[in-house]
Amino acid sequence: MPDLSINFAGIKSPNPFWLASAPPTNSGYQVMKAFDAGWGGAVWKTLGVPVVNVSSRYGSINYRDTRMAGFNNIELITDRPLSDNLKEIEEVKKYFPDHAVIASLMVESQEEWQQIIKDVENAGADGIELNFGCPHGMCERGMGSAVGQEPEVLQTIVSWVMEVAQVPVITKLTPNISHIVDPGLAAVRGGTNAISLINTIKSIVGIDLDTYAPYPVVDGKGTNGGYCGPAVKPIALEMVKELTQHPEIKNTPVSGIGGIETWRDIVEFILLGAGSVQVCTAVMHYGFGIVREMEAGLVQFMNDKNYNTIYDFIGKALPNVTEWKHLNLKHKVVANINPQKCIGCDLCYIACDDGAHQAIKLDRTNGNRIPEIIDENCVGCNLCALVCPVEECITMEKRDDGKQHVTWDQRTQLDDIPTSFNDDRAGGKHHYVPTVQDALKHRSK
Amino acid sequence: MSLYKRPESELEFQENFSQKKPLMSDSEAFYESARCLFCYDAPCISACPTGIDIPLFIKQIQSKNTSGAAATIFDTNWLGNACGKICPTGVLCEGACVHNHQDVPPIQIGRLQNYATEKAMSQNSLHFTPGEANGKKIALVGAGPASIACACELRILGYHVDIFEAKDKPTGLTVFGIAPYKITNDEVLDEFNYLQSQLGFNVIYNNPIISKNDIKQLENDYEAIFIGVGIGSTASLNLQGEKLNGVVGAVEWIEELRMNHHNVVVPDRVLVIGGGNTAMDAASEAARMGATEVTLAYRRDKMSMSAYDFEHKLAVSAGVRSIFQAQPVAILGEHEVTGVQFVKTLNIEGKLAYVDGSEFDIPCDLVIKATGQGKQVKFLQLISDLSLDSKNRIVVDPTSYQTSNPKYFAGGDVVNGGAEVVNAAFEGKMAAIGIHNKLSI
Predict the structure, then answer these.
(1) ipTM over 0.90
(2) Which of B177, B173, B206, B171 is nearest to B192 (CA)?
(3) What number is the average pLDDT over the span B345-349?
(4) A6-318 is classed CATH 3.20.20.70
(5) Which chain A residue's Cα is nearest to B103?
(6) CA-based nearest distance A66→chain B, Å
């Protein structure tokens, strides 16, 4: 049995599975129940001056019959008095002294910051997370993402916190910024012990077609919310990588957040350098029990790969995440359709013909529905394999011999790149493109 | 032993004849529609005799545009609701679903179709507007599915439509001949009423066209005439004893059952003769009416039956026993039928031969003959210059459905010899377009 325990910037936890600061960590009842279910840590629902919330708070993106592929909320930080929360933190720590309880905080003035830090430390919090991410409501009042979007302000507040904090401090960043490294650097320069990201993405999940109001609708009106859930994972993974690869930030532990639901998501975040992960939407959807699958999968993965601790593979994918200009232009893959597996939906054909590079042909002779790849037209884009509804039916096969390696960067240095609009070195110069009139052959009779 | 208790009330009848394709709930339709792959040039469309854009209407159900889904269906098939329930979808659209090739259950297209059309009708959310009146009148003979489809299409094109129906109810075999577990009388008539109330075609009931004079009148009063009279009553077997009490034709017996439900008295031992879908239906229905011993007798082997395999399986699952290679030679009894004498048969080079001395009797209290229906030759002969083929089917132009007598068009069983409601719906619609093209010249 591998050792799942972590020491995240000084915060010890029996495993890397933490609950993110959100509705599932609103009370001691929930956090205790979560720890009992197997979660290693919990970031308490953000404490501060209690708010007043609205009724109707969440909205979601349902993709076909999949509920909550994306999720959004307009709920604010805790609406419960600080003393109630502090009392419950204390109680939880009594029952679960070895689990990580991190207090998420959001206040305005230096005085408030320094006071609330003392309060949560006295209650027994193992760490502090600074909420500089909330993109709705709180930012209108100069907090949350309003801070995360201003690196200088962020750095100042972090330094106020670091002056007094006795426990490790995690700075939580907002993704609602064009360059995540800026607030990341500001947090590091302010002295933060760790960074967590991403907070939610500013969003409107949909509009009611009868009342013309955005979801979630509050008495005929709505506002932008914070978007999360499985749909945001790719954005989170990329932003984690931006920080874990940055020379000045990479030594600061990062807690990965964004769309995590299964062990695979967790392993991906760890491979990109996350030292813990935080989960919210999956728990709001399935309850705390979802951690069973995470733990079983992570253990299995570590056993299969012979890893004893997560530090054996943290950041292992980072060397392979590079810039486009360093990709090998001589690498060549071509799609292959397995006719034994093909069910004849012909989605690959139409996806390629309408949406990609016209590299699949369809010959209806004798009612045939199995499409055929036109090797010389195939650019190896993967689209057909992605749309194919059959497991392992379309595979991408390597066609280069692996001996050549030429990148855009190298070609640039050799002055061998297209430089004018009609340059002969254009990548698609000799590639097949149907005539404009060929389009009309498809008109129905 | 019968698997079914004799139904003594309408409720018990409905239980024994519970719908094979019940109406989907909103959730069921939501999850089922999510499974559709939206195939390119989808094989389900080609497998539908009317060519409904099935992936489109399923996508419309998924995006909660149910009345749009219904519009897609009715645009192509005026009997879209009935067809969703009664089409042999397993051998048509659902049989063609690509999921079959990866051992995933095919999309339940029929039930999704019925979901969309039923919802649109019950919520009155789909409206058809007749075309601007062009002053031309068309007569349709018979109010079965072919004529209904033809009438709807003609109304859209602006024609005045009068349908002449011999019986007191519309929809022909859809209400009189389909097995009750496939569709209820109300469902059939509700769709008809919805179409009629919106499109405004007339049906003159209890008005058979039986004489040359009737024909002459029609020819005088109307610009064109559509023949949708279907096929006739059960053909005679020309056997001794065929006139005994307790010997009935399947079409007539099923009609009686559809109209009178649990009030029809079915004796214990029922023998059904035939190997087509009507024979399977009759056997299934007799078993569901509580007959204790239902036997299906067919003169050739199982493979040669024209019935769909699933229909035979359905009969077997209702407790029906099957006997193959048995040719009836005489119906036994004095006043009441007591049994049927058979002779065993052999297939020799594709021909049927009797085995000498192999005669045997099957005792029974009711014989249902499901050995085919006669054609409406007597009626068809009233029309001059109307070409029929060797099987007495009307010969039509395959695109316009115009007959050899240019004033007449035809579609449905009278042309195809007896097929599905969906085929009649298609042919009726095509004939309407044929009529329009001809009259627009």
Answers:
(1) yes
(2) B171
(3) 91
(4) yes
(5) A343
(6) 9
Q: Per the CATH hierarchy, to which homologous superfamily does domain B247-369 belong?
A: FAD/NAD(P)-binding domain (3.50.50.60)
Residue identified by tokens 């390696």 is: A405
For the domain covering B22-122, report its CATH number. Answer: 1.10.1060.10
Q: Is the alpha carbon torsion for A274, A280, A281, A284 positive or negative?
A: positive
Tell me how close the Cα of A362 comes to any Cα of chain B, in angstroms.
11
pLDDT digits (tens, 9 = 90+) for A84-141: 999 999 999 999 999 999 999 999 999 999 999 999 999 999 999 999 988 888 888 8
Q: Please give the class, per CATH, of domain A324-412.
A: alpha beta
Token reading at A102: 């991190």
DSSP alpha helix (H) spans, B173-322? 173-176, 185-199, 212-221, 250-260, 277-288, 309-317
Q: Two tokens at B337?
A: 């039928």
Residue with tokens 């350098």: A273
Question: What does the domain layout of chain A look like in residue ranges?
Answer: 6-318, 324-412
CB B247 within 8 A of CB B338: no
User: Number of C-alpha atoms within 13 angstroms, CB side, residue A207?
Assistant: 5
Q: How far apart are CA B159 and CA B354, in angstroms?
A: 56
**Does CATH number 3.40.50.300 belong to domain B137-232+374-439?**
no
User: Between residues 97 and 126 of chain B, which touch chain A (CB distance below 8 Å)?
Assistant: 98-102
Percent residues over pLDDT 70 in chain B:
100
The one-letter code for the residue type at B367 is V
Q: CA A403 to CA A400: how far, in whole Å?
A: 8
The pLDDT value given to residue B441: 82
Looking at residue B261, its pLDDT comes to: 96
Of A13, A96, A89, which is closest to residue A276 (Cα–Cα)?
A: A13
Q: What residue spans define the domains of chain B?
A: 22-122, 137-232+374-439, 247-369
Q: Of the candidates B34, B43, B100, which has its C-beta nearest A64's C-beta?
A: B34
